[in-house]
Amino acid sequence: MIEPRDEHNLRLIANVHPTDWVNPEPAERYHMVVIGAGTAGLVSAAGAAGLGARVAIIERHLMGGDCLNVGCVPSKGIIRASRAWQDARQAAERFGGPRTTDGSGNFGAAMERMRRLRAGISVHDSATRFRSLGIDVFLGEGKFVGPHAIEVGGKRLRFRRAVIATGARAAVPPIPGLAEAGYFTNETIFNLTELPPRLVVIGGGPIGCELAQTFARFGSQVTLLDKDGHVLIREDADAAEVVQQAMQRDGVRFEFNTKILEARLGAVVIEGNREIAADKILVAAGRAPNVEGLGLEAAGVKYTKRGVEVDDNLRTSNKNVFACGDVASRFHFTHLADAQARIVIQNALFFGRSKASALKIPWCTYTTPEIAHVGLYEKDAKERGIAVDTLTVPLSSVDRAILDGADEGFLRIHLEKGKDRILGATLVADHAGDMIGELCLAITHGIGLGKIASVIHPYPTQGEVIKKAADQWRRTKLTPGVKKLFERFFQVFK
Q1: Greatest CA span in the chain, whole angstroms?
Q2: In sequence order, which residues have a C-beta less than 8 Å from that of residue 80 and are 6 or more positions away?
Q3: The pLDDT value given to residue 99
Q4: Which of 22, 96, 229, 473 is found 20 to 30 A from 491 (Cα to Cα)?
């Protein structure tokens, strides 16, 4: 539930789930019916309708899904605010700026700003806008009642093709006493209007790290609990270490390799019967697909606890039903949901054979610094028997990073051994998410480091780190034998 019911959230709700909405009368048959109006569903519906198909979309909660309402949009809004607070505190020490005698800010105002901006953005995902695109918008519980039909609000929608795009939700671990003690997930944490003095975060993945650092910068005493030995376990250990140290400097305390015994009102108890004081608890321990209550059995759609089963064309066990986004992927990213929806449009409506496995998927964790990645990690290459050459360029060699006081990260690129073909890249930098696109383009379209070396990058920018990696690779081509040839050339042409 979206709280508080202020003018901004009321405007949000009026856009994404208007209380006076009247569902239309269904068409005789739709080319496509989409269940779920998050990114995957909205892109599927809008794309199909834009091509002239008769389309219906069903949403039981809020149009825009997690990304707009409880994910990307609100989290990045408060991340930006907390970074501004931290910059103000450090202005004197790092940049010779004015000294701040009071390091606190107005948390309520920061959250109000987020709600105001979210409400403004919500127009793009609104029920009214999608109706204006020629799409029949149904608000309510959608459920398959057969292999070719879905019911919502007592009305039956018959389809040629259907798309399951119901997304995922926060997974809650079975911790004794957690329900009684009370907890937040990403679906409720953005309802806060007062800063919790002490916050315990369960989970050291991207969501846990982003929000732990954010609330520490706002002024909460934050303790992050994780069953692994460091945060962001999917990333290279040294990349995760850079972020972990930055979080620690911002005041986040860590308890690693720990088991939570129970939650109590005001505390979380971990192994050794140690109590961690907690005014609020944030659970960020993974995601679970939304497959319940959809009548998938009636449609002959197979699914597991991991989500709806799809083939490489994103087709389910029912040849007329496709699935995309978080409900059908182990990668839970808005941009991937968008890309998969485009594949579904091609394959469902035009007998296409586009493959999800062909997508080169970048991702970014929006801590400070950020970690962005695309392609293979070195461990992935080894598992596949692929030999690689690895280049690592520290941000401390990039003038702009030095001047920005943001030179602790690095760029790491894995190349096919002996060649300039890029197989994967990890970037740890303040603007890693903005910079990784160049490398994603290179991997997707087979652009080697040799060609990147010929591209002029503006100076001074942090993006120069990519040009430095290309130059570093080019210098490896100057072998002792080649150098001797040049020396003889210059001896002849004095």
Answers
A1: 90
A2: none
A3: 76
A4: 473
Going by C-alpha positions, the residue among 43, 56, 325, 299 that lies closest to residue 169 is 325
The structure tokens listed for 144 are 């398959």
Tokens representing residue 47 in the block? 């794309």
Which residues are CB-contacts of 255 (< 8 A; sequence separation ≥ 6)?
A: 223, 224, 225, 226, 270, 276
Task: Please state, in angstroms and rounded to a whole number, the distance separating the CA atoms of residues 149 and 151.
Answer: 7
Strand partners, 308: 303
Q: Which amino acid is at 140?
A: G
Two structure tokens written together for 348 = 């469902």
CA 175 to chain centre: 26
Angle ∠(45,48,51) on CA atoms, nearest 5: 145
Query: What does pLDDT average to in each consecutive run of 10 residues of the chain (494 residues)?
Result: 95 98 98 98 98 98 98 98 94 83 84 98 98 98 98 98 98 97 98 98 98 98 97 98 98 97 97 96 97 98 97 98 98 97 97 95 98 97 97 98 96 97 98 98 97 96 97 84 71 74
Q: What is the 3-state secondary structure (H, E, C) of the chain?
A: CCCCCCHHHHHHHHHHCCCCCCCCCCCCCEEEEEECCCHHHHHHHHHHHHCCCCEEEEECCCCCHHHHHHCHHHHHHHHHHHHHHHHHHHHHHHHCCCCCCCCCCCHHHHHHHHHHHHHHHHHHHCHHHHHHCCCEEEECCEEEEECCEEEECCEEEEEEEEEECCCEEECCCCCCCHHHHCCECCCCHHHCCCCCCEEEEECCCHHHHHHHHHHHHHCCEEEEECCCCCCCCCCCHHHHHHHHHHHHHCCCEEECCCCEEEEECCEEEECCCEEEECCEEEECCCEEECCCCCCHHHHCCCEECCEECCCCCCECCCCCEEECHHHHCCCCCHHHHHHHHHHHHHHHHCCCCCCHHHCCCCEEECCCCEEEEEECCHHHHHHCCCCEEEEEEEHHHCHHHHHCCCCCCEEEEEEECCCCCEEEEEEEECCHHHHHHHHHHHHHHCCCHHHHHCCCCCCCCCCHHHHHHHHHHHHHCCCHHHHHHHHHHHHHCC
Q: Exposure of 199 by Cβ count < 10 A (0-12 exposed, 13-18 middle, 19+ buried)?
A: buried
End-to-end CA distance of the chain: 79
Q: Kindly state the tokens that stand for 326.
A: 């978080």
CB 136 within 8 A of CB 56: yes
Which amino acid, 237?
Answer: A
pTM comes to 0.95
Structure tokens at 426: 């990890």
Query: 407-423 b/e with 16+ CB inside 10 Å = b?
Result: bbbbbbbbbeeeebbbb
